[in-house]
Amino acid sequence: MLRAEEARAVDAVEAGWATDALTDIVRIPSITGDEGAVQDRMAALLAEVGCRVELVEPDPATVRDDPDWPGQEMPRDRLPIVLGRMGRPGRRRIVLVGHVDVVPVGDLATWSDDPWSAAIDGDRLYGRGACDMKGGVASILAAVRAIRDAGLEERLEGEILVASVPSEEDGGQGMLAAIRAGATGDMAVITEPTGLEVVIAHAGAITFRLSVPGRAAHASVRREGVSALDKLQVLVRALEADETSRNSAETEPLMTAHGLPYATIIGTVRGGSWPSTVIDRIEVEGRYGVKLGQTWRDAERDLQRCIDPFLREHPATVELTGGRFSSSRVPADHPLPVGLATVAEDVLGRRPPMTGEPYGADMRLLIHHGDTPTVIFGPGDKRLAHSANEWVSITEVVDCARTLAAWLVRELVPD
Fold first, then answer.
1. Which of 58, 67, 121, 133 is the most exposed, having the fewest neighbouring CB atoms within 10 Å of its CB?
2. Which helix (H) or strand (E) holds 140?
3. What is the pLDDT of residues 38-64, one digit of tens each?
4. Rounded to the nearest 5 degrees, what angle is found at the Cα of 200, between the Cα atoms of 205 and 177?
């Protein structure tokens, strides 16, 4: 049951303002590697809702030298981070995290409207990043604004720290840099799209590149050559067998619920120079799942063990590229997920389930490198993330904000 202060914060969430803030940030293109403009707007919005704003911009080269650097997939010369603070520092701190980078839009012909239009149709707001995860970012802004508007800012017995980070989509170095700058706390919530379920565990992934050599020959005497494609097919079969083995060995219900929580795919293939020449080299890039309980380094060893027998007989090279997402979890009985689920039930009238996800997230960085228990809870359907005509439910954005506002008051405003 909500206390009077909590109900006041819930009532202070303004749907119209949340929608306007979401529209603002969706209309700013922010493909990972180019987040400067949207972070400028985030700084202004955080100031508008009453936060003390801090801009952090580490040298990307320095971040890459960090021994825990989580990789990247897009070139960048900036890593702009925006922090917003409300309440009293030096006491309990709750961190609310959202990333503002988005993936490329892909083929424009597959979109019904401009990907940056933030067009609204009924309860849906469309645009690249609307679901992943600017909807959740708007929820954070609206929740913090509601605490101020409800007159509860001065009663906070602790600090709210909002971290708006870049570079989540290609590894998470923005979150790592924010952690190094002090963006840690007693608890954290990341508002990635979960359909307002409480995610307490996630798997991870590494990306890899395989270079498979062959020997060129004229097609009319192809037996004189060695096809790199034939060699690649042997390797793909080994990866398929490994995927089956790793997934069938999993017994954790949070992961087995997904059927194939640790997927392996070949995503890009490049090779060949002439239709009538035996392929002398193929280069492929792919994704390899990190099991729950594993770090990315553990998964790298699994990948190496899978392909080592092939490499001994057929010289080839394998290297990691792009993001390196370890897994992470918090116990189901930890005060963070239990408390958040209880408040969500009080606000929304239904208790959200505690679930696990097969994808990687910044959650693992806060847990492993920030010593901050973290869950994921946000608006949107992850199946819409990265898709054409991506959208988020405005109702869910507002419901997330209402839940966060009440939870923050319960955690930081005494009776």
1. 67
2. helix 135-149
3. 999 999 999 999 999 999 999 999 999
4. 60
Q: Are 185 and 161 in contact (CB under 8 A)?
A: yes
The catalytic residues are: 101, 168
Tell me how far CA of residue 315 lies from CA of 179, 284, 385, in angstroms: 41, 15, 38
Tokens of 321: 């590229």
Residue 121: exposure state from Cβ atoms within 10 A (0-12, 13-18, ≥19): exposed
Q: CA 234, CA 230: separation in Å to the nearest integer? A: 7
Q: Does the CA dihedral 382-385-388-391 come out positive or negative? A: positive
Mean pLDDT of the chain: 96
Once rounded to an integer, what is the mean pLDDT over residues 107-123? 97
Residue 368 reports pLDDT greater than 90: yes
- E-assigned strands of 291-390? 317-325, 328-329, 354-357, 374-376
Query: Structure tokens of 138?
Result: 């708007």
pLDDT at 316: 78
Assess contact for 409 and 147: CB atoms under 8 A: yes
Question: 204-325 is classed in which CATH architecture?
Answer: 2-Layer Sandwich (3.30)
If you ran DSSP here, which 8-state letter would residue 208 be given?
E
At residue 61, the pLDDT reads 95
Where does 4-202+327-412 sit in CATH, by number? 3.40.630.10
Write the pLDDT tens digit of every residue in 70-100.
999 999 999 999 999 999 999 999 999 999 9
User: Is the Cα torsion angle 101, 102, 105, 106 positive or negative in sign?
Assistant: positive
Contacts of 315 (CB under 8 A, 6+ apart): 213
- Ordered by start, the domain boundaries in the chain are 4-202+327-412, 204-325
CA angle (260, 266, 272) in 5-degree steps: 165
Our CA angle for 62, 66, 68, nearest 5°, is 150
